[in-house]
Fold this sequence. Notes:
The chain has helices spanning 3-38, 45-78, 125-130, and strands at residues 93-96, 100-104, 108-112, 115-121, 138-141, 144-151. By secondary structure, it is α+β, with helices and mostly antiparallel strands.
Amino acid sequence: xxxxxxxxxxxTTCASQLATRRASVDKILANVALSLKEETKSSAGDKHxxxxxxxxxxxxxAGKQLAEIEKLEVxxxxxxxxxxxxxxxxxxxxxxxxxxxxxxxPAGEIKTxxxxxxxxxxxxxxxxxxxxxxxxxxxxxxxSVLKIHSIY
Length: 152
């Protein structure tokens, strides 16, 4: 795989994972809306109110998750698949002596034809350490020294 193909694959995989998360949250919101609509007052009034309150809490939690997903979608849309040299920035693929990283959104481990990459956000501890670094630089993370071999 070329550098361009790897970067595109990582970005596409992150977008796909985010779309799956969005679909799951959308389904929860739709189910809660349907449940609230179908909820009718029964003779056990307290049970009814407790059920409605729990549904409202579930809707609030799903709303918070949706807001977070929307923030991550904005970040993903800012990432270019163009190969660029220079310091580590949003959208960089960073190959180090310990692991390989894609600086984008926190999406976890992504397996590619050339190895495993960890999709991390710029706000993560390792992301903050890597930002602004160049090829050949070293960073200390959790008792390990990571040497940056390449950035693209």
